[in-house]
Amino acid sequence: MQSATIQQEFTKNIFGLSIPVLALDVVIFTIYHGVLCLVLAKREKEPSKGTFILPGGLMKVGISLEENFDDILLRKTGITEVYKEQLYSFGEPDRDTRGHIVTVAYYALVDNDVLLRTADLTRVQLIEYNSLDTTSIGFDHKKIIQYAHQRLIWKFEYTNIAMNILPKQFTLSELQWVYEMILGKELDKRNFRKKILSLEMIQETGELDRDSSNRPAKLYEFKDKELKIVEVF
Amino acid sequence: MQSATIQQEFTKNIFGLSIPVLALDVVIFTIYHGVLCLVLAKREKEPSKGTFILPGGLMKVGISLEENFDDILLRKTGITEVYKEQLYSFGEPDRDTRGHIVTVAYYALVDNDVLLRTADLTRVQLIEYNSLDTTSIGFDHKKIIQYAHQRLIWKFEYTNIAMNILPKQFTLSELQWVYEMILGKELDKRNFRKKILSLEMIQETGELDRDSSNRPAKLYEFKDKELKIVEVF
DNA sequence: GCAAAAGTGTTATGCGTACACCCATGG
DNA sequence: CCATGGGTGTACGCATAACACTTTTGC
User: Fold this and answer.
1) What is the 3-state secondary structure (H, E, C) of A103-150?
2) From the CA of B14, how many Å to the nearest CA of chain A?
3) What is the reported pLDDT for B52?
4) pTM over cut 0.85
5) Which terminus of chain A has fewer CB atoms gathered within 10 Å of its CB, N or C?
6) Closest chain A residue to the Cα of B98, Cα to Cα
């Protein structure tokens, strides 16, 4: 009943006008306990009730896409500081049963510490990327997630984007795990270190990782704050 | 007078609703007489009257972005067969003085023969990319064009996209000119030929270019019809 | 025969890749 | 002293980059 009302309301306000409605959805990646995760919401209403969906919402008039992004991200997830990039716009007329909604999809990368500090985990949850049941994803969000994942791979191959998903300090082994996870292949330790260090995108902090029962690893940090094109692999 | 009426009409129908309106604009590249050109329209009405603008239009409800693209391209330019790719969506609230219009920008590549056969040259014109006076470009279309040009460069570096802007048959020298023009740098003839031939994306047609007063060049054609990732440079 | 563009090979250098052992620490 | 992950160097092959002369045709 409630969902029917909302649906009607939606249709009346928006689809009586014969123009497509604009929305914005966000694919948020993070690394939690060493594995790639997505920040997804559980849809509470029809259509697609009970599925996992991307945090998103209708676009407001009078503010830029980026401001709409910030607004929607905050309202739907509580998260404030992320690396964001526009991904693609999806506009199949049947992608939402309520009517023709064109969505501008973004993807975002967030350091897990920031995520846990700011995210409202009653509204969104962390889902491991690899154990995600793709049949449980609502609307066309599976397609959007796949598109975002592909873009993420490319960005790891060709830029220093990794800085946006790693914590402030990290060991070279941790960095290598992240690359292996994203690129989906094993890398040679010596070659990886040689390549990464030759790119001069990270530097030693002078500190050591003391939380392990073996030889402590040097901690590194990224030099740059800006996205740079570097041919990593 | 006429433009005021249209503007009012526009405002009344669309901006009373407090949602952004969706449009689609296209950056069309072609090569005419060996130089990179854009297909632009001259804006006849306010705002931005008298400037060059991208062919574009409002998005229709109920059809996909690609169908909207085909529809707008045909209505605004007459052109039917192009290679197209979504570029980026632009949504600054002040990008159009009539109200908040979010545009999904596409870029397209078209072979000059197809262009001249189909384009309605009373509505659009060919403008050399390099001699384009950027102050004469309306709305935020200069930004969109620059974005498209950057994308084009990347595509030439990493894919066989060149096949979509060259005629069916071409000489290796012509192909090299196109690459030099797009990439903005000179290439060594021997290395270029070696690289291109090793990529196996083109093949000899067996025919020769007989319209010159010197040694006739072999004519080549592209093997593939699909976009392929190839590291050209 | 001359002008003009087509066509062709070799060498040097840098980069990616493959690969195995010693080191430092905590328990 | 042992288990665990941290850290290090070399050799080979391939791709890129630099470079100049001969060939074919029309006029």
Assistant:
1) EEEEEEECCHHHHHHHCCCCCEEEEECCCCCHHHECCCHHHHHHHHHH
2) 9
3) 97
4) yes
5) N
6) A62
B101 reaches A (C-beta below 8 A)? no
Chain A interface includes B100 (CB < 8 A) = yes
Chain A interface mutation, best of B60, B64, B70, highest count of A Cβ atoms under 10 Å: B64
Domain positions in chain A are: 6-142, 158-222
The domain B158-222: what is its CATH number?
1.10.10.10
Taking chain B (233 residues) in consecutive chunks of 10 residues, what is each chunk's mean pLDDT? Answer: 36 56 97 95 93 96 97 97 97 94 98 94 96 95 98 96 96 97 96 96 94 93 92 89
CATH architecture designation of domain B6-142 = Alpha-Beta Complex (3.90)
User: Is pLDDT larger for residue A71 or for residue B6?
Assistant: A71
The pLDDT-based confidence of A16 (bands split at 50, 70, 90) is: low
List the single best residue of B90, B95, B100 to mutate versus A (max A Cβ within 10 A).
B100
CB within 8 Å: B22 and A20: yes
Residue numbers 160-199 of B with CB closer than 7 A to any atom of strand D: 188-191, 195, 198
Find the CB nearest B89 among A65, A92, A93: A65
Residues A147-166, buried b or exposed e (16+ Cβ, 10 A)? bbbebbeebbebbbbbbbbb
- Residue A160 DSSP SS3: coil
As to burial, measured by CB atoms within 10 angstroms (0-12 exposed, 13-18 middle, 19+ buried), residue A194 is: exposed
